From TrEMBL:
GO-annotated biological processes: L-arginine deiminase pathway
Keyword Kinase listed: yes
Keywords from the UniProt entry: Arginine metabolism, Kinase, Transferase
Top-level taxon: Bacteria
GO molecular function, one term: carbamate kinase activity
Name the record gives this protein: Carbamate kinase
Pathway where it operates: Metabolic intermediate metabolism; carbamoyl phosphate degradation; CO(2) and NH(3) from carbamoyl phosphate: step 1/1
Length: 314
């Protein structure tokens, strides 16, 4: 029985820091990623892909604001849906092409995915999710004053606007995702962390304005579909202890207990590596076999165990 891997990569892998986020830039970046992903298919894994949307959804919000006197502005949940479509389209097209080029016949589809959140989540009063372009401190503080943005410094890469990021509670389309994967389809799902929706008393769903963290959504999705592996791809080849300090050293394997201990000691910051480690811990505690954190450029090596950091039960 082939193993199912949920692969997650950040919106910053699709629009790299310093890039404007043109369609061509996004496509070139995704093409590189797809070459790595095809290796996983070659190795016999079933894939569910999920991606971030921070830079892209932030850009859409800016467009919304600039055009609001000409065309109606859309709520943030609709903008998340827009990014699922635009990024899903690029991945679907590039991945299908790369699979065909290597003689592999595997269908690929993007699924518009809603994720239930609690409208009473305290995250709505404390925005933490960085989106959109990176600004200098001066520019960010000016935007905060003029437009009422909440801004933070994002992992030493510059300043960014932040929006609420509630905890994902349930993937609405999980059964459809499972059925597609079992039928041999590569599914792109819960893009941008999923479209945040709240469950109303009458059982209907209503969009809420937020951006869910894609590592958290990927974790939930992986547990809900019973995936064996959660694969979190980012810029660094593996997790480090004392990251950025002279004593920095790589870690290739962490037990859940070790990961929890280092997290408590502050080794993994909240806005960057922290959510990945938390997602890895929850996945393994939720029944997953192993979580892997590694770089996009070395995805095939990471799944084979020659790169990356594996987080396991014991
Ligand atoms: N202990 C650590 N080990 C490795 N990377 C770390 C660590 N602490 C912080 N980082 C930073 O976290 C980044 C990954 O988080 P982030 O950029 O938010 O991911 P993505 O946007 O790819 O989802 C790495 O590129 C690295 O700069
Ligand atoms: N939604 C989300 O987590 O996006 P990024 O990965 O781009 O931050």
């Amino acid at each position: 029985m082939p193993q199912t891997v949920v692969v997650a990569f950040g919106g910053n892998a699709i629009t790299r820091p310093g890039q404007k986020g043109t369609f061509e830039e996004q496509k070139t970046n995704v093409q590189e990623t797809c070459r790595q992903l095809v290796e996983l298919v070659r190795q016999g894994y079933r894939l569910i892909l999920t991606h971030g949307n921070g830079p892209q959804v932030g850009n859409l919000l800016i467009k919304n604001e600039l055009a609001r006197d000409v065309v109606p502005a859309m709520p943030l949940d609709v903008l998340v849906a827009n990014t699922q479509a635009s990024i899903g389209y690029i991945i679907q097209q590039c991945l299908s092409f790369e699979l065909a080029r290597q003689g592999l016949k595997v269908p690929v589809v993007s699924l518009v995915t809603q994720v239930v959140v609690d409208p009473g989540d305290p995250a709505f009063y404390n925005p933490t999710k960085p989106i959109g372009p990176f600004y200098s401190e001066e520019e960010a503080k000016r935007l905060a004053k003029e437009k009422g943005y909440k801004v933070v410094e994002d992992s030493n890469r510059g300043w960014r606007r932040v929006v609420p990021s509630p905890q994902p509670l349930e993937i609405v389309e999980k059964e459809a995702i499972k059925a597609l994967v079992e039928a041999g389809v590569i599914v792109i799902a819960a893009g941008g962390g999923g479209i945040p929706v709240a469950l109303r008393p009458d059982g209907s769903l209503e969009g809420v304005e937020a951006v869910i963290d894609k590592d958290r959504a990927a974790r939930l999705l992986a547990n809900e579909v019973g995936a064996e592996i959660l694969f979190l791809l980012t810029e660094v080849d593996q997790v480090y202890l004392d990251y950025g300090r002279p004593t920095q050293r790589p870690v290739r394997r962490l037990t859940v207990a070790e990961a929890k201990k280092y997290l408590q000691e502050g080794q993994f910051p909240p806005g960057s590596m922290g959510p990945k480690i938390e997602a890895a811990i929850s996945f393994v505690e939720g029944g997953g076999e192993r979580a892997i954190i590694g770089s996009l450029a070395r995805a095939a090596e990471a799944i084979a165990g020659t790169s990356g950091t594996a987080i396991v039960a014991a």
